[in-house]
Amino acid sequence: MSAWTADQLAQLLHEANAHPWESVQAALDGIEGQPHPRVAWLTTHLSVTKREYAALIAAAAGAPTPTDDAGLSALMAWEVEAVRALAPAQLAARLTHAGMDLSVADLIRLNARHTAWHAGQIAALKPRTRMA
Description:
This protein has 132 residues and is mainly alpha-helical. The chain has six helices and two strands; from the N terminus they run αααααββα. The chain has helices at residues 6-18, 24-29, 37-61, 72-84, 88-92, 104-124; strands spanning 94-97, 100-103. Strand 1 (94-97) and strand 2 (100-103) form a beta hairpin. Helix 1 runs antiparallel to helix 4 and helix 1 packs parallel to helix 6 (104-124).
């Protein structure tokens, strides 16, 4: 497989985070009224893991980290711009996550998959209109 560019990885994250139909933001936007209690856990979990990924990337690539007070929406916007600014050498830098040796680019792709996975879970927790 050819190497992903910073712009391609940023686009992948942007789509997982904020695509109008299939993303965390789309899933959250579709919730009306009192959300399922698991939605709060999922959004907190996404915030925590995105901070962890940012710290790993910063350590491996010499990149900045988000501010301590950034919430999930701010983290999602921040990471897209931070990834877009990474040079090819920074994307190739190595790190260890969950006992796996990964490149920064690999971790960014993992982040996008993880985000999409939880976006689907959030969407599945939305109340459904009965059609009977």
